[in-house]
């Protein structure tokens, strides 16, 4: 295997080394030793260390990973460092996170034949499935569950889906690992994670002719991987029914078949519930690290609006750890509502906040969701913020009169509201505790916390926000959510109002030193 020589990044160079779990900052359950941590060292022209190489037999055949070496520092980190430097921010940090066995949630295509099933990802630019039984990114128990599923497919003669003909039984499988187990010592929880298996079945519902095969496969998985087995691997088995010929993986109908119904994880200081139909971060450990960092930028007792909230994990973690006055979570996917409600029920008793979840599209009149918050948290999809939201944020300093008018006339609006998206948001909303006070409803956010999974869209949104002179960039952190790929998760903190830019602060410090 040839070494890949890269030009050295600007100082300081982040390298990876082996250390004991005790040095990890994250308070979440630690994996078995050895684990990876970061150290800072001088620039070196040495080739990349093989200790940070992928070592995956499926590399190149599979489209999941794009580079083999320097997993701890993808090249995009250097680009991000330079980008933030041009904006006057020289203290951009990057957390390498866990480099192997990090993926706790995987959606995999099922193709081939019952005698030789292929379970994996599509090869680049095709719909040919690359079988990836020894994926190095997967939590090891995902690979074990895939092996068990293959045995069931062969033993029961389950037919994998044929895209050309639209025939077959099993189209996809989603594997999700929960490392939540208070009965185990913290150091053993990650390694002993249980797998929730969701079978995407090629039928309309559980009464279809091939439903007996579905139940037989579910029973095979549970019998050979459930709690009565020597190795308890499987958390639960679910079915999703999908007959569409498009590329959408899941249909709208779900059914719980075997095992535990509720799927729990512990991140950001709280227990969270995730239904198989709701969005969940693939890299649980990295997400927990990001949440712990994010919490530092939210003042105690703040009022928070969480846009693109999903099941409200970010907002609820802030309610618990920062004792927020109010937290509003706004999400377009109605499937997240149930997970939100279950998570709220598990919040510590000391949480005394006005908490609400709203089924709404933030692109429609975003100002109505921005108003009433001190801190605005946005976690948009890869495409970035909706244009209407960017416009509202750019002009937020000039809408104080609008905010005042809105608060004064809110009671009459409530009576006469006819906008369908607002009425729908009310019908599907969940309110915990007292509603926001009229005083809170007048406030506008002074802090914007932007979590980005799309680097190119983030750069565009960032420049748009800064060009308005309404916001200034205060801090930025990067996280290695997808080792082996050229991607980066960014946590950026913006402050509203005119302030001293990082460049000016540096020049002022130099002047003081000269004096």
TrEMBL record:
<feature type="binding site">
    <location>
        <position position="331"/>
    </location>
    <ligand>
        <name>S-adenosyl-L-methionine</name>
    </ligand>
</feature>
<keyword id="KW-0489">Methyltransferase</keyword>
<comment type="similarity">
    <text>Belongs to the class I-like SAM-binding methyltransferase superfamily. RNA M5U methyltransferase family.</text>
</comment>
<dbReference type="InterPro" id="IPR029063">
    <property type="entry name" value="SAM-dependent_MTases_sf"/>
</dbReference>
<dbReference type="GO" id="GO:0006396">
    <property type="term" value="P:RNA processing"/>
</dbReference>
<feature type="binding site">
    <location>
        <position position="379"/>
    </location>
    <ligand>
        <name>S-adenosyl-L-methionine</name>
    </ligand>
</feature>
<feature type="binding site">
    <location>
        <position position="281"/>
    </location>
    <ligand>
        <name>S-adenosyl-L-methionine</name>
    </ligand>
</feature>
<feature type="active site" description="Nucleophile">
    <location>
        <position position="453"/>
    </location>
</feature>
<dbReference type="InterPro" id="IPR010280">
    <property type="entry name" value="U5_MeTrfase_fam"/>
</dbReference>
<keyword id="KW-0949">S-adenosyl-L-methionine</keyword>
<keyword id="KW-0808">Transferase</keyword>
<dbReference type="GO" id="GO:0032259">
    <property type="term" value="P:methylation"/>
</dbReference>
<protein>
    <recommendedName>
        <fullName>Methyltransferase small domain-containing protein</fullName>
    </recommendedName>
</protein>
<feature type="binding site">
    <location>
        <position position="308"/>
    </location>
    <ligand>
        <name>S-adenosyl-L-methionine</name>
    </ligand>
</feature>
<dbReference type="GO" id="GO:0008173">
    <property type="term" value="F:RNA methyltransferase activity"/>
</dbReference>
<dbReference type="InterPro" id="IPR053304">
    <property type="entry name" value="RNA_M5U_MTase"/>
</dbReference>
């Amino acid at each position: 295997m040839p070494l890949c020589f890269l030009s050295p990044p600007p100082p300081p160079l982040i390298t990876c080394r082996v250390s004991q779990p005790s040095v990890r900052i994250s308070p979440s359950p630690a994996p078995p030793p050895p684990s990876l941590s970061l150290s800072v060292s001088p620039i070196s022209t040495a080739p990349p260390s093989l200790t940070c190489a992928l070592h995956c037999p499926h590399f190149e055949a599979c489209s999941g990973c794009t580079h083999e070496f320097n997993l701890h520092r993808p090249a995009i980190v250097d680009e991000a460092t330079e980008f933030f430097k041009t904006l006057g921010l020289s203290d951009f940090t990057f957390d390498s996170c866990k480099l192997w066995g990090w993926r706790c949630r995987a959606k995999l295509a099922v193709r081939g034949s019952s005698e030789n099933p292929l379970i994996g990802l599509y090869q680049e630019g095709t719909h040919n499935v690359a079988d990836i039984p020894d994926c190095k990114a997967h939590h090891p128990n995902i690979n074990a569950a895939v092996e068990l599923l293959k045995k069931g497919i062969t033993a029961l003669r389950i037919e994998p889906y044929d895209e050309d003909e639209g025939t077959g039984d099993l189209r996809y499988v989603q594997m999700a690992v929960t490392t939540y187990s208070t009965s185990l010592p913290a150091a053993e929880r990650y390694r002993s994670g249980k797998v929730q298996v969701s079978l995407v079945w090629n039928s309309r519902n559980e009464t279809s002719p091939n439903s007996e095969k579905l139940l037989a496969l579910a029973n095979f998985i549970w019998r050979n991987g459930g709690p009565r087995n020597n190795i308890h691997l499987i958390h639960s088995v679910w079915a999703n029914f999908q007959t569409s010929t498009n590329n959408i993986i899941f249909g709208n109908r779900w059914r719980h078949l075997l095992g535990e119904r509720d799927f729990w994880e512990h991140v950001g200081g709280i227990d969270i519930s995730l239904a198989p139909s709701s969005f969940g971060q693939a890299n649980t450990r990295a997400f927990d690290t990001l949440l712990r960092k994010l919490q530092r930028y939210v003042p105690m007792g703040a009022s928070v609006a969480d846009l693109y909230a999903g099941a409200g994990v970010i907002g609820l973690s802030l309610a618990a750890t920062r004792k927020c006055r109010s937290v509003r979570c706004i999400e377009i996917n109605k499937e997240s509502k149930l997970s939100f409600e279950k998570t709220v029920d598990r919040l510590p008793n000391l949480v005394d906040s006005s908490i609400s979840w709203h089924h709404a599209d933030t692109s429609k009149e975003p100002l109505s969701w921005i108003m009433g918050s001190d801190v605005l948290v946005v976690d948009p999809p890869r495409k970035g913020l909706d244009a209407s939201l960017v416009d509202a944020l750019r002009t937020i300093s000039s809408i104080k009169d609008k905010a005042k008018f809105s608060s004064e006339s809110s009671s009459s609006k409530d009576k006469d509201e006819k906008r369908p998206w607002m009425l729908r948001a009310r019908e599907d909303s969940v309110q915990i505790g007292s509603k926001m006070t009229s005083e809170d409803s007048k406030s506008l956010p002074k802090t914007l916390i932007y979590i980005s999974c799309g680097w190119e869209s983030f750069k565009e949104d960032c420049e748009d926000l800064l060009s308005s002179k309404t916001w200034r960039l205060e801090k930025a952190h990067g996280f290695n959510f997808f080792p082996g790929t050229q991607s980066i998760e960014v946590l950026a903190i913006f402050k509203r109002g005119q302030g001293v830019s990082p460049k000016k602060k540096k020049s002022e410090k130099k002047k003081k030193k000269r004096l």
